[in-house]
Every structure is written in C-alpha cells, then in structure tokens.
Here is the input.
Amino acid sequence: MRVVAVFTDTPEMLEHRKQHGQAHLDFLRANQSEILVGGGLRDEEGGVYVGGLWIMEVASLARAKAIIEQDPY
Here is the structure.
C-alpha cells in the first residue's frame, strides 16, 4: 500500500537535526525499499526546514508507523 507521511518540525528540531542527521540519512538508505521518496520541506528556497515528507510502499499502515517510529529523527 502507498502511504504519504508528512512531518512538522518544532523550533527544537534544528538542534536535533544537527545531532542525528547522519543517523537519519543512514536509516533512510537502509529502508529505501519501503521509503521510496523522502526529503525536507522548507517555506522558501534556502530557508530552514519546517518539516519533511516520505512516500512509502509498505505492506500495511502498521508497518509504516513502525518505520516512522524507528527513525532517529
């Protein structure tokens, strides 16, 4: 099933991104068979991230939730 997950950042997320960015990218690579498209969202070109979006192909909504909960972000 195809699932779209939209994430919204809080102001504290900037520091979290700095600390866990590489682990998050490694996680995305390790799960690329189910996370087909992923990326950060910005309000303007070159602006700070305000969230993120994933397009996933998973067996179930429960599987999508499990993947999301395992992400270092």
User: Anything to note?
Assistant: Helices lie at 13-30, 61-70. DSSP finds two helices and three strands in the chain.
